[in-house]
Amino acid sequence: MVLVLEPAAKRYGTFRINQDDQAVATDCTSRFCSGFLIGVSILFCILFWPIGLYLLVKVVPVYQRAVLFRLGRIKDEEAKGPGIFFVLPCVDSFVTVDLRTQTFDVPPQQVLSKDSVPVHVGAVVYYRIFDPIISVTNVVDVGRATRLLAQTTLQTILGGHTLAEILSQSERIKQQYQQHLGAATEAWGTTVERIEIKDVRLPQTMQRAMAAEAKAAREARAKVVAAQGELHSARALKEAAEVISHSPTALKLRYLQTLSAVATETFSTLIFPLPLDVMGGGSERGSATSQGH
Q1: pTM here?
Q2: 20 to 30 Å CA-CA from 177: which of 11, 56, 65, 219?
């Protein structure tokens, strides 16, 4: 008994050739079936012309596009519309895609900031579809996928910032959020146009602490402003006193001005200021009289 061993390369090569033959046969069968079904569909439209015309003609508005499938495969590289396009009954199917800007609310997410402060933050996302074919073939529900991704991305972005950055650098955080979300949804034929951060809610204890800190800061600023005002007024009074000390006439004019200001007030008690030089002169005359006696 003689065993003849066939080389492995020869066996594998024969297997690959058999696979190629099967693929060619399957492709030919698929083409034949596709042509047969298309011919039957066209014959159906001809036989039932009025009804066939209703099933044959479709209309797409200007804000929509139609992705056309023929026997499960995309018929053209571009979506149909706007306007009229034709489909074959029982052979073609299509999916309409809205190209208008759509919006959704991101529910408030509880995020632990970088400095370990729990924060509830919500957002609003505006997006639109720029490639209808990719949005239909690459994802089941592009709207739901974008909403879920927006929630997780918001948690990731805010988790890398402190509370002070979240409150003071909202524009930079929005840009970073839009870039991350847009890069992820680009593979779905979707572009993110705008994002707005809203509903930044803090715990009650943190709100009270921040209110107390802000009140203390305001009181400190008020004290500094009052001290600066007293300093400026003291300097002004010093300069006025130096000017008046060199001019007795100015002192008398200031005295008369004070009298006129007091006279305009309606008080039951009138305070009449007496000049110090008068009092000094009276005391000097009294002392001279007592010495003469």
Answers
A1: 0.62
A2: 65
Beta bridge partners of 124: 105, 196
- Read off the pLDDT of residues 196-226 as tens digits, 9 standing for 90 and up: 988 788 777 776 777 777 788 888 888 888 8
Summarize pLDDT for 235-273 with one digit per residue, the tens. Answer: 888 887 777 777 777 777 777 777 777 667 666 666 666
What local confidence, expressed as pLDDT, does residue 145 receive? 94
SS3 content of the chain, % helix, strand, coil (to 5): 60, 20, 20
On whether the CB atoms of residues 94 and 147 are closer than 8 A, the answer is: no
CB 134 within 8 A of CB 90: no
Q: 38-56 burial by CB neighbour count: b if 16+ within 10 A, else e?
A: beebeebbeeeeeebeebb
DSSP secondary structure string for all residues of 209-239: HHHHHHHHHHHHHHHHHHHHHHHHHHHHHHH
- Contact (CB, 8 A) for 71 and 87: no
Q: Tell me the residue type at 291.
A: Q
Distance (Å, rounded) from C-alpha 97 to C-alpha 131? 9
Q: E-assigned strands of the chain?
A: 57-60, 64-70, 73-74, 83-86, 92-98, 102-112, 118-129, 190-201
Q: Considering the chain, what is the average pLDDT of its residues?
A: 78
pLDDT at 57: 85
